[in-house]
Write the structure tokens for this entry.
Amino acid sequence: MFAYILKRLGLAILVALAVSMIAFLLLRLSGDPAIALAGEGARQADIELIRKTYGFDRPLPVQYVEWLGKTVRGDFGESVYFRSPAAPLIFSKLQTTMMLGVFALAFALFISVPLGVAAAVYRNSWIDRLCLALAVVGQALPNFFFALLLIMIFSIWLRWLPVSGSGTWQHFVMPTIALGYYAAPAFMRLIRAGMIEVLEADYIRTARAKGLPATQVIFKHALRNAVVPVVALAAVQLGFLLGGSVVVETIFALDGLGYLAYQSITFKDFPVMQNIVLLLSVTYVVLTLASDIANAWLDPRIRVA
Amino acid sequence: MASSMDVAAVAVEPGGLTTLAAPGLARRVWKNKAVVVGVGLLLLIVILGVFAPFFAPYDPYVQNLENRTVPPFWYDGGSWVHPLGTDPLGRDYLSRLFYGARISLLIGISVAIMSGLIGTTMGMLAGYFGGKTDLVVSFLVTTRLSMPVILVALATVALIGGSLWVVIMVLGLLKWDRFAVVMRSATQQVRSLDYVAAAQAAGASTPRVLLGEVLPNVLPHLIVVATLEAASAILLEAALSFLGLGVQPPLPSWGLMISEAKSYMFFSFWLIALPGAALAVLIFSINLAGDGLRDLLSPEGRA
Amino acid sequence: MSAVLREEPVPDTVLDVQELSVDIATPHGPLRAVREVSFQVKRGETLCIVGESGCGKSITSLAVMSLLPAAATRRAKKLSLLGEDLLKATPKRVNALRGNRMAMIFQEPMTALNPAYTIGDQLMEVHLVHRGGGAAKARERAIELLGKVGIASAGERLGQFPHQLSGGLRQRVMIAMALMCGPELLVADEPSTALDVTIQAQILRLLADLQSDLGIAMVLITHDLGVVARIAHRVAVMYAGEIVEEGTAESVFASPRHPYTRGLLSCIPVPGRTERGGRLGTIAGVVPSLIGDIRGCSFCDRCAYARPECAVAVPVRHEGAHAWRCIHHELPAERAA
């Protein structure tokens, strides 16, 4: 198990480095970063000044290493728009987005696990067909449209929840649903497929032959084995959710990293933008690593090799 | 390799062309309601989009400030002059919806083709050669998967300016990951089959083997993934346009239409409901067709 | 038809099966996998149901345990365990009986245990569900039984996972698991088939010892006549879903009355009797399709002694406790092998 973790860790570090290179190069996409940073209508002298200050005149690899060194030490540079250090700004919003991501994932699992199990146990019945229909419909709704619908229903019509902003738990309800619902169908299908396969296994027949109650057979014996691929998917989905938070947070003006990303992009605040991409990517890498480890732990064949 | 690769690869079942070619294909297609409904709806949308100039009663770009925000015919104040009403600039909504279909379909198809070419090449090479090639491709896929597509797309569009073609380029260059993963799995399964060995023994060059023997047999998986990615690309473009960083006005992208109607949605709900529903129906039909296709490919039908 | 007619069950009859039939739904019509099979098993007795693959013996055992797949329907005139009617029992009651008064072990020990839980957990859960008590009592019982099935250092084994044990050990664990609640009936579906030859003998010996020790009634399914010879008190030969011959092991082996049984026995080389280089017996032909109506003897197409009457109806003959379905009372003497 230990060797396995070490290998995974090594891979994760390599990926993180590759991602950092891409994030670094992103800023150079528009051509001369000095011009981009200076904005439109800037004088040549200003551009030269910026070039010197930010070190854009040095060779690319040198710039990269320097930037990487600073970033790893927590120095994210300064936000052009907010005129304050970028790191504290970014980290202060991170917590909100992480919470949103976790809630959304929990929501997705909360609806998909029971539906997936029911669809598998009552395979090919009307329950199964209904669950699959819900899955297809769920995946067809664009998340921003669904978010607007939620606002119409819960804020305007029912007046139960606030339209936008952050601060109370009520502000999190609709964003959680809007972000999480899209991940549910994938989980549901995975659980259904996994359960159907597992329920055919010999050890389930043994469990039934032992006279165990049906709930114990389904949840203790079957689900435990069907859940393994779900854990891997959960990490992947959490990564997607973090990325997808941009749209949802912006619609609900929820003060998180996604909203900050949107603002920084709109106001061409490149240092912030660059580092948010890096941060979210590294978070995803860490999550994948965690899920690999969890996966290995769940399978006794790897855990007790 | 990365566990995310294995998760996506679970979706690849043995079968493929041989299952499709099995007798009774026409009957199975007809019995599979998903494929029938999905393909039918899709065809309808394609026809409406492609022949929009024939079907649309008005020019979608012509503004008519006398006739702003007219409701659809089923509301008070609506009429059949503008069956689905007009937008805040007086443009006929029905026509804009038809022309919007063109944009969504164009995005879906172009991105699917572009990312499909990139991803399939990578996946097939990785699956066929294994070893170092596989390691490199897997590493690239893992790296790509670690980056949030929407953020990178947003940032890129912000840096080089937004337009239909920029969106297609960016999405096409980003969304090849699933193609690579699935094609890798499928190629691995096919590689060990006899006719591939036979072709190699006969001295066929590698490109020949890949294109002549492997590709026809992984084609069904390719088609299934292509439908999924097309749907995903359509949704991404809609989201980008909604945030103002995708297709630019006055193009009638459905996502853009929703964005433009956002501030009016409390009083004129149909302004967001109609394009939203259009998007939903399009994605729904693509997914249905893709699902049905996957069922047809899997030997025992539904998994 | 009942092979041995009894008016009421003898007091120590553990399992009483009368006219059990199982149909399996197929796209081409119902497949009559088991056709009016009847047998009884007494305490301390081993009944071996023997037959080739596809004859319906496994399905019979699953039907008794109410473990049939969804596509199968079960009918019977009587199916009772220790006098209790299993046909009328509610699912809850059936669950209460399974693992408790009747237990089953299966053919493939490699896949019959859940890979995600320890041996101890899987052993103890049966006891906890049926006998309550507590974890300590269950654990004690598990260790006791692991010792009984010949597994050393039982305490350590409890914490191990199935993948850490060999096939033979896993089968022993399965047997221990089946005996956790002291059942009166044990159904064993080809328990030794998937194991190495040397381990096979050990497992069979274990089962025989446990039976005489605990006095349980055992139904053992097998395709191997060697197994039957080793362990059976009584034998039921199945063919195409029916029991074609039944009796004590001695009488069936010594004087097989049904042509199929005789054919089976002649297929086995006997050291000393079978000539080197001589031909082994074979039974020409294939098992008939079991879909749709079947009339008369299902073996007559392959039978060397068939007569036109065989295709219409076949009587059941008796001689003491030995019974068989054939028009012949006694078969002509065999030609020299």
Observations:
- Chain B has a mean pLDDT of 82.
- The radius of gyration of chain B is 22 Å.
